Structures are given as C-alpha cells and as structure tokens.
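Operator note (shift B, R.M.): manual run for Methionine transporter requested after the automated queue skipped it. Running by hand, logging everything below so the morning shift can see what happened. Input copied straight from the record, untouched. If output looks odd, do not overwrite the archive copy; leave it for review.
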Amino acid sequence: MAQTAKTKFTILGAVLTIVILGLTGWTLQKKTGSDELVIGISPSFAKPLQVAAEEARKEGLHIKLVEFSDWNTPNITLNHGDIDANFFQHQPFLDNAIKETGFKLKAFAAGAASHVGLYSKKYKSFDELPQNARVAIPNDPVNQGRALLLLQQAKLISLKDVNNHLSSLQDIAANPKNLQFIEVEGPQTARAIDDVDLAFGYPHYLRLAKTADPESALLFDKNTNKRYAILFVVRDDYKDKDDQLKKFVTIYQNSPRVQAALDEDFGKKLWFPGWK
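Run finished. Output pasted below as returned.
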C-alpha cells in the first residue's frame, strides 16, 4: 500500500473537518451547561440504541445519537472531543485503531455481540462455488482476520496459524479454489453481496441494507467469544458526570424493550450479550 494506515487516518481527518466543526456546537453546548450525552453510532446499531434513549428519557437522561456511515470517523470525532462516546466497534478493532493512530481512547462497557456468516445469492453450498470465485471480505485488519477464520471453518482455505484472529491474505497457506478476494470497507460487505459469488457478512448490516436474509448464511461462525462484543468507547480522560453513561449502559443491557429491538435487528439467535 502506498500510504501507511496512519497517513490514511490523517488525510481522512482533514477531509472530515467540516463534520467536526459541525459537532463543535454540541461541545460548546455541553460546556455551557447542557446535560445532553452525545454518542456516535453506526446506523446498523441505531434501533436498539434509540429504544434505550427513549427509556433513558423517562429517567431524566438526555441522549443524542449521531450516526456515522464509516468506521473511521467515530473515533476521529471522539478523540477530537466533540462527542462523549461512540458505539460501533469491538475490542480488537479498538486496539488496532489505537495502535495505528495513537488516539487516547478506552472501552467503557460492552454491548451486544453477534455471529457473522458467509452468504451467497448465487450458490446454495460451498461445493457449488467455482474455481476463481469472487469473495467479498472487509479491508480492515481485524475484521478481515475474522472473515478468514470463517472461510477456514468452511474448509475453503487454510491459514498458517489456524487460531490467529489477525490473519491477513498473506497468511493463507492453501486456497484450493483459488478464491479471488475483493476487499471492501466492512459496512459495504452487505452491498457487495450482489456483485460477488460469496460474501462475509454481518446480520445487522444485511438487515439494514435489505440485500439478503440475515438468517440465510451458508455458514455462521461458531465463535461465542465476547472479544467481538460492540463497545461503548470513551476518551481516556472521560469523566462520567452524574453517572449518565453508566446509567444509559445499564438501561441498554437490561431493558426488555432494548432486547426485543436487538432480537428484531440481529435475529434472536444471532446475537448474545457481551456483558455477561
């Protein structure tokens, strides 16, 4: 790659200056006495969090949810100090982001974790996949490793280290069908499914994109490791005024309405609590 990951984040940060300036109004509002808690989220997690925000309002908590369409901006914006927290990433992704950027961020609490799957709109089994089949996988190091582990579980490839959750394309030891890998941003795997033979997918993104039935994977991962639970993330210096975020997390983790929204968004059998 011509650019280092850190350079990419720097360039993206410059491009997103307008977004950050727009968010500055919330920062100023907080500094002048507003008790509004601003959380950056991915659209695919919006419904359960919106339900949690409605429940929180009944208890006098004011939650502002700000949606970001990519997986870089929420951390840039949080590190800049224009939101209080974000909710879109698991611990391996956060660790990698901190390593690449030097951002001063930390996990505050865990949310839901979900299974991931391999989906095809052209074939009904892995045996039907042709030689040189095109396979869509995430382009970030962490989720790409997760996709490769699932492809190994499907016996489509073999990895040099069968347990390495950070394996990359260079770590493929055997590829009998000569699969051709199409690397896209994680959220875009749900749309790439229409253009490839096989796609790694997240049930909640597929449900949001309406490109495939989230329950229709040829294979789901066996992993119930809470390593992949989506986290509420804050800055290292975050001070939880009046335990606002703590109270909101408690609502998210315990509200029957939120759990019903998670069942609807992910599929009842496709998510599990990352906090237990």
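Quick read of the result: Residues 35-112+224-271 form a domain with the D-Maltodextrin-Binding Protein; domain 2 fold (CATH 3.40.190.10). The mean pLDDT is 89.
Leaving this for review. - R.M.
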